[in-house]
Amino acid sequence: MNYKDLSFPTRTQQEFFSTLQARVQDYFKQNNISRYGDARMVIKTIVMLLMYFGPYFLMLSGVITSNWLQFALWCLMGFGMAGIGLSVMHDAVHGAYSKNRKVNKFVGNVMHLLGGSTTNWILQHNILHHTFTNVDGVDEDINPGNYMRFSPHQKRYPAHKLQHLYAWPLYGLMTILWITTKDFKQIIRYKKNGLIKQMKRSYSSLFAELLTMKVFYYVYALVIPLLFFPAPWYLTILFFFVMHFIAGLTLAAIFQSAHVMPTSEYPLPDDKGNLENNWAIHQMLTTANFAPNNRLLSWYVGGLNYQIEHHLFPNICHIHYRSISRIVEKTAREFGLPYISQPTFFKALREHARMLYRLGHQDQLVPIQVNS
Q1: What is the distance between the alpha carbons of residues 356 and 123, in angstroms, rounded to a whole number?
Q2: Domain spans in the chain, listed from the N-terminal domain onward
Q3: Mind listing the pLDDT tens digit for each residue in 153-165?
Q4: What is the secondary structure of 42-82 as a DSSP string?
């Protein structure tokens, strides 16, 4: 079903979100603070960029000649790459980094430096995923192809019985797919379903931009290291792959642990394309938090351990999620809605693996509503 054919109820179930919005707005007003980022975001941006580009220029300078030290630096670049995506680019493309749209656009385009497409990310993530979370056939985050099953509404194949084991190495290939085939396949698909027009972009200009940035990425990220880094060419290719593997695994672990969980629902529209619950309640039923007390993790992942708050208020900078989470949880309890939060990141990963196992062994699943 095309995303244009789907709709949420607009005349019912409005009290929860209207009450929540009023309370969150009152929080910012009473504390006289902006919902956008501040100096903390500038500092984080510098740190994440240094984590990625610092090792690159250090190796390019020839100062580091040990293959093992170079390997360690490429690994650090992998975490830096994931950190830029999670903590910097993500807020910017949601318009939450700064109240200045030009700043948001400029910072959001850092994704091009990582080999991805900012426009494709906005279409897949902001529009499809954030609007139709966990809706099979529309939310591309739960549509990895036949080799994995992320929804109980998808066909189950015999190989899926082992997906809780082989998912992790496949997750590491996420950004490898981004820099090779995925972006090109996406713009063709988005051209067909009309999403590119929604961005007020032409297919030809987007394709040209995509091709240009891919060439630029491969030149600086792979060709220059092959020519000028001290390591042998075969190790440079291996290290490049390891960098992407770390970034892909990190990104997948964060995002999938928020939606492909035993507590998650997978709503289906009726024959007319109507979804049962309004948008805000839909988000509460399809999203989960994790590790709310782990401040270091929260800092690194851009507050995405507060995934519920992010889905309800994507235009609020993540530095505020911890504070407004108390308001969201209190309001959800008042309205009898679930507020799912795993106590630690490792517990969330275990629950995600558990969900993969269930999806690989059962055709039909009932969400397990467990608050922790």
Answers
A1: 26
A2: 3-361
A3: 999 999 999 999 9
A4: HHHHHHHHHHHHHHHHHHHTT----HHHHHHHHHHHHHHHH
